[in-house]
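Table 4 source record.
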Amino acid sequence: MTDESQFLLTVLGGFAALAAPVVGVALARQRLMIVDVMGDSMAPTLAHGDRLVVRRTRRLRAGGIVVARHQEGGPRGVVAGSPASGWLVKRLVALPGDAVPDVVAPAVGAGVRQVPAGMAVLLGEHPDSVDSRRWGFVPLKDIEGVLVKRLGSTGR
């Protein structure tokens, strides 16, 4: 091997070593997101200020904690300095074909027995949570991902 080809391999190896972490971070950001819990709608399971790792996916299971786009007035914009978020953290309690929970019946109509195609039911753990008891069904397309891990609290 010539000195020139050895130099070229060294440069390419160095470039690859520098590029790999950048590519890894970019791929992780496509698959994962960090969300801070705002409010007490998921208490006692999650507390205000908890930081969550969420995996972006369409593979959903009833019973899991999910992150979805806010349902009131569409996604809320976050005003600088405001703790408000465009994301909701709720428990996914019913998927298409599942029975409509009794607590949601007033919001969807008493005659509706099953969750329709393309929709889901999201509930907070706290009795005063604003969720499907108020909005009714949530479009599956608005669910961004599922909770992977609680990192701890931001102390807010």
